[in-house]
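User: As part of a screening pipeline, I want to sanity-check one entry by hand. Below is the sequence and the SMILES for copper (II) ion. Please return the complex as structure tokens so I can compare it with the automated output.
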Amino acid sequence: MSLRLRLSNAAAALAAWVLGAPAAWALGQGGMKVWLPEGVSTFAPAIDRLFYIVLWITGIVFVAVQATLLVFLVRYRRRPGRRAAYTHGNVFVEIVWTAIPAAILVWLAFFNQGAWAKVRGTPPPHDLEVEITGEQFAWNIRYTGADGMLNTPDDITTINQLHLPVHQTVLIHLKSKDVIHSFFVPQFRVKQDAVPGLTGRLWVNAVKEGQLEIACAELCGLGHYRMRGFLTVESSEAFAAWLATQLAEQNT
Ligand SMILES: [Cu+2]
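Assistant: Here is the complex for your manual check:
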């Protein structure tokens, strides 16, 4: 490779390394949604904060490591008359670079214990209960009827249409009919496997009205790509009206 080509490659790599990570970070922070879509659940900010802490730590280490690599590439490049030296490593340095990430991991775990307990611990009292069952290749949604209980004759069911009232705590029972699916609503920061034979329990409280999508985040078969649900977060009144329409349609 010619020196010019090598230099231009190095310059391009340097630009990608040094500019790429902070630029993407800035875009993500600026609401341009490069990293994450807008978070619209009550626990989304806590999850995003953890995400960005990890991104900052790994980003700084990444840039530092790549910059060092570049400096070493230039500084210790092959030169006539200079022999390579053999080194066996340095135990002290290895202990340090193992201990620091370990300490960071432990710190992250303790620091985010509260967020974990909130999202995955005992769900808060709920206003609404929904059962969502994954199936090759659709989401079956089941609402309690007038009796407020699931799996009774007055249930209201839909396929791929999930409506939720805004600012209400919804308890979701997640099931699967056949294979492992994964219920994923990026804006909620919710992703949970639906496992046959098990009922997963999750909860969400949406803070903003809008149209979202449910993705299946587990390769569940040939039709996986079209396993797509539509999620509407709306006012309690609109939700009640929609549910009444569904019930009327079901009874005709
Ligand atoms: Cu699936």
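Points to compare against the pipeline: Strands lie at 128-135, 138-143, 156-159, 161-165, 169-176, 181-185, 190-194, 200-205, 210-216, 228-234. Helices lie at 3-29, 44-75, 91-111, 113-120, 236-250.
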